[in-house]
Amino acid sequence: MENGIDVSKWQGNIDWAQAGKAVDFAILNMDTSFERNYSGAVSNGVLVGTYKYCSARNTSEAAQEAAGVIAAMKGKNITYPVFYDMEENFIADLGKPAIAELAKTFLDAVAAEGYAVGIYSNKNWYNNYIDQSLKDKYDFWIASVPANDTGEMKESLRPSYGIGWQYSWKGSVPGITTDVDLDVFYEAFPKEAAGVLTVDGSFGPATVRKSQEWRKTEVDGVVSNQPESNRKYLCAAYTGCWIFKKSGYGGGSELIRALQSDFKTLGYYTGAIDGWCGKQTVTAWQKWLQAEGYYTGAIDGSMGPQMVKAFQRYLNEH
């Protein structure tokens, strides 16, 4: 079970060096505090998710909200889900079918970018306003807080559903001077991080972390400082953990430099050890996986799902 918090601008300036010692994760509001809290959380080893408070009245507005959230998360290491909070009276008045369409519009757009998604809801909303089609398709983070909230977990109020439980609105955490919401999630995100990778062909945070552990480089789930021009070769790369820049690459990725060095030693790579994962690096990677007996696809310099599945199988066995 993972312990965490959810925070917004109302928590003010958080001392994340202190808070990071007390929590595993933080779900950050997409408000004016997001950039500050993201930087503080990740720099102190706190895994991050986000939540968006819905103000949309139709699917067009929900799509606009999704686009804004996606833009704000671009290049960031978001490993916990992105949650949509729709608990407003005007949304309730729309009725279950319309609420379902709002949620699906937002969540499917965000999920298409490779992020885990879900719905934040209290028990009343879950029982009375959430359509079964949403319950069947998405994860839920459920608020269930006692009337006499003292910051303690009341086991009798634990929901029997959902992937996470918000159990207090009056918690106390070092580094935060205000009351703060307290949460537990029942498994770590990304879900594969604690064990065997899912062989899904998506080079995402869990695969990056396992790659970094395997190569003994910094384990942060991020392939950093990649040139924008190389994006076209990395079609199976999860946008949440591959950081593309137009200038100032800063030496590229430590993980990619390590792989390039390996491939050069083995005779598969003749380029520079620069940490930039372009066509020549991917070609060497494919040749190496083929020689190891994991890859049977084309040697074409394009990181597609078949290549990533081959690498995930390799990592699971080594």
Description:
The protein is α/β, with parallel strands linked by helices and 318 residues long. It is 34% helix and 18% strand. The protein contains 11 helices and 10 strands. The protein has helices at residues 16-19, 34-42, 59-73, 89-92, 96-111, 123-128, 132-137, 205-215, 254-265, 279-291, 305-317, and strands at residues 2-7, 25-29, 47-53, 82-85, 117-122, 139-143, 164-171, 180-185, 223-227, 242-245. The strands form 2 sheets. It has an 8-stranded mixed β-barrel with strand order 1-2-3-4-5-6-7-8. The chain has a two-stranded parallel sheet with strand order 9-10. The radius of gyration is 21 Å and the shape is globular.
Question: What characteristics describe this protein?
Answer:
318 residues, alpha/beta, eight-stranded mixed beta barrel, two-stranded parallel ribbon, 11 helices, globular
Topology:
Elements: E1 2-7, H1 16-19, E2 25-29, H2 34-42, E3 47-53, H3 59-73, E4 82-85, H4 89-92, H5 96-111, E5 117-122, H6 123-128, H7 132-137, E6 139-143, E7 164-171, E8 180-185, H8 205-215, E9 223-227, E10 242-245, H9 254-265, H10 279-291, H11 305-317
Parallel strand pairs: 1-2, 2-3, 3-4, 4-5, 5-6, 6-7, 9-10
Antiparallel strand pairs: 1-8, 7-8
DSSP helical segment count: 11
Question: What structural class do the secondary elements suggest?
Answer: alpha/beta
Please give the number of β-strands. 10
**Residue-averaged pLDDT, rounded?**
90
Distance between the termini: 27 Å
Sketch the major β-sheet. Answer: 8 strands, mixed, barrel
Oligomer: single chain
The helicity comes to 25-40%
Low-confidence stretches: none
The side-by-side strand order for the widest beta sheet comes to 1-2-3-4-5-6-7-8
Radius of gyration: 21 Å
Shape: globular
Q: Provide the succession of SSEs.
A: EHEHEHEHHEHHEEEHEEHHH
Report the sheet-strand fraction: 15-25%
